[in-house]
């Protein structure tokens, strides 16, 4: 890991690599036809930027710095290529995709809300707690990782239940998962 | 030359997700975004400002001392003893905390409290270890509380904010899955044409390129908010319902119950002991529980470069014996994640450059939330089903925030800390009433941005007038400069009267729209 001065040099190198990588990806994705080499070069540039930052600041902090640096570098590239448009634009050749039209009613909306918030939450917490209790790891590790699983699974459950038009399927899956998770978490205590 | 249907078929084939899947995801994304939009917006905006909590504290108290060098072990020991004497005088002896100067804040913050009596104090120390001035930053405390629990009862508020983090995380997932041309469109930004196309480009570009940051802050925020609930269920299953036992496992040993008087331990010796093993370690924080009792315990956090954690915790008993360490820097994965949660969430691991990038990306997340609702409203308008009341209410919900935050800061600066929350809530309420009366999104936006800009200018003038030379403290100067930039942006927004054509362009596959 570098000291402050070397850290700055590695940061400058990393920013240059990230910039080069982003520029190559931009050329590749905005251009017509297949530009596999450019695309490969772009990703390689970004990977080199991450490596340079990790070299300068250590893997843990360096990767965090590189993730943070990539966003503004890429957004600068987006802004640099922004297209100013006249206020009247012609219609697109292909209409855009709109959200799926679904039958809507208060009962259905309430059911969706109940599925996506409490039921998905109950299932996610159940899995997280079961993980925290039963995984063969150090207690702190399983509690922290089990805790991290909760928002990830809850968020995933929300996205799924709100996009799935079939309420019964989501209800059955979430109820089944909840029963299994809480049984796994609480049965040993109840039985023992 | 390929015919149009062939081109179309190839275009569809290149898309990552099938149209039906994308439309279903979009439906879920819209429903979730709309249900939580305002909460996500407020939490993101206040979270963005919270990155600069220590700078805002300095803005509120620019005359307080800064400690611009690493504190020596003797200085920390002296501060502990001074804090104990002050706590005795104020009948608040139980726990003592010290937060050292570091890259995030160059101040030496000393706190003491007695939970049972409800007494306590927060002081700022100088480089000699004297407690010079009480910490007096009520607006910063208001902002932190707004972000952490929305000023609701603590447990419920934190749960709601945690749930908002989950909704944000879920929106990121569904937004990503409903993006059929994520790579092809990664650099497209068409500005100035149809509003819906412009906002969709902005929404998607900021969303995709800021994704690592967005996921990191929403995941860590959700976990921090939901921790009490998760640990509560875990405690029911494994610790006889005692959450304290589960938390103790995570947060290290707690003080013993023996309340017999005992001398304060030699903190300087503890710091030197850690530095003998790790010469590069610097003091970060200290927490002493049940100070000056036989059961006292010290959690000493020392920071080594190259880690996200604020520091590794070393546990000492009242006789100065090392009991172990938290493993926050080089311990198991769970311990390292645990210690990195708060620094990753607030951007407190790399000094000012990291805070600035966090501020910009936090603002981007706020803009994404705002543009998501604007796109939905524009889509309704394009479909011939405009919702002027909702357009107006959303404009009020969003644009009232700068005005409400600036006015509440002005009330605080004027010396009325009890009026901060009422000022914020009243501004929000009046804005919503105004929106209901006006029923026009653009008019409501203009009506709120113009006074917010003027209020920001007035706030800077009042701050400089009140603190004079102290207003040129580095952090105070930076905050005032940011306020002036904010005023300029709000004035521009208030003066924007650009008429927009009905949007012909679509939400997601933008590169196909109008090209």
Q: What does this molecule look like?
A:
The complex is a heterodimer of chains A (192) and B (515). By secondary structure, chain A is mostly helical. Helix content of chain A is 78%, strand content 1%. Chain A contains six helices and one strand; from the N terminus they run αααβααα. Chain A has helices at residues 4-30, 36-57, 59-80, 106-134, 139-163, 167-191, and one strand at 83-84. Chain A is flat. The termini of chain A are far apart. The model of chain A has no long low-confidence stretch (mean pLDDT 90). Chain B is of the alpha+beta class. Chain B has helices at 4-14, 19-50, 53-60, 73-89, 138-149, 154-177, 195-209, 211-238, 243-251, 267-277, 333-346, 351-382, 388-413, 420-438, 441-467, 474-495; strands spanning 95-99, 108-114, 119-125, 131-134, 190-191, 282-289, 297-303, 312-317, 322-325. An eight-stranded antiparallel beta sheet of chain B has the order 4-3-2-1-6-7-8-9, with helices on one face. In chain B, strand 8 and strand 9 (322-325) form a beta hairpin. In chain B, helix 2 packs parallel to helix 13 and helix 6 packs across helix 8 (211-238). Chain B is globular. Chain B starts with a helix and ends in a 20-residue tail after the last helix.
DSSP, total strands of chain A: 1
The end-to-end span of chain A amounts to 51 Å
For the report, how would you describe the main beta sheet of chain A? none
Strand content of chain A: under 5%
Radius of gyration of chain A: 24 Å
Helix content of chain B: 55-70%
Q: Structural class, judged by helices and strands of chain B? A: alpha+beta
Average pLDDT of chain A = 90
Shape of chain B: globular
The sequence of SSEs of chain B as H and E is HHHHEEEEHHEHHHHEEEEHHHHHH
| Mean pLDDT over all positions of chain B | 92
Distance between the termini of chain B: 18 Å
By DSSP (H or I, 4+ residues per run), the number of helices of chain A equals 6
**Overall outline of chain A:** flat
- How many beta-strand segments of chain B? 9
